[in-house]
């Protein structure tokens, strides 16, 4: 019977701050931008916090105990869950798909990701998509440095949700906190950095690769292109169902019998606190309900973001 409680990996970034303290983490600096809550990626491989597998890296369990994950195939643990808290604007970027990354980035996975907005300061915008009508217009706007005209900004508020397909121009701005569910990849092409200086220098841009992968024109993706994923958990609110992942929100008030009917479930507590099978959890807890754990007792007043690989 396995629920893997994980120690998150905290990342210091140029645009980070101290807001992740709200999630109960001890911050290693006052510029922390990311918490990798559920990750087996080499750039942030989470350790199991307690129990039979205490101290094991998630990548090791994936390699040596695949039965915990319903014997799902694949060399790498497929998903990565992060909480991102931006004090300053992030550079504007785009990710490749599996095909392009596999050919051009040493066999890496591409990156599809999605964002659940946990918090946003008043009057905060998010960047999702661009305004070029076709590839030629996109290339000419990039060549002419018309980034302000190119990027597409949208106002956001807590509870909003965005699906970011590979090839989508995107960025969050200062004052935004999101939970990101993504393919386990760290391949990013930087398109524009607001001409900011970092230690007196412009940060490197990846304009040719960006031109290769950006899809024009931008079209908002369907969140349920192949319908809704089957689950016995009627209280789950499906946010997105793609070829790589399904993400649900569960707003819990009281008791709930969760039925683990996926390969395995990645769970993050994003608000409130409670218990899972008698184990206390709170805002900022991350864990995996493994394939052998079929019935889970939840109680409390909390909001969970749950994902599963497809
Ligand atoms: Zn991204």
Write the layout of secondary structure elements.
Layout: E1 3-7, E2 9-17, E3 32-38, E4 40-41, E5 44-45, E6 47-48, H1 58-64, E7 79-86, E8 92-94, H2 98-104, E9 113-120, E10 125-130, H3 135-143, H4 147-150, E11 151-155, E12 161-164, E13 170-172, E14 176-183, E15 189-192, E16 197-198, E17 201-202, H5 207-213, E18 237-241, E19 245-259, E20 265-276, E21 279-282, E22 286-289, E23 295-309
Antiparallel strand pairs: 1-6, 1-22, 2-3, 3-7, 4-5, 7-14, 8-15, 9-12, 9-14, 10-11, 10-13, 16-17, 18-19, 19-23, 20-21, 20-22, 20-23
This protein binds zinc ion (ZN).
What report would you give on this structure?
The protein has two domains: 1-8 and 43-76 and 222-310, Jelly Rolls (Sandwich); 89-213, Sandwich (Jelly Rolls), CATH 2.60.120.10. The chain has five helices and 23 strands. Strands 1, 6, 18, 19, 20, 21, 22 and 23 form an eight-stranded antiparallel beta sheet that branches. A six-stranded antiparallel beta sheet has the order 2-3-7-14-9-12, with no helix packed on it. It has a three-stranded antiparallel beta sheet with strand order 11-10-13. The two termini are 22 Å apart. With 310 residues, the chain is mostly beta strands. The structure holds zinc ion (ZN).
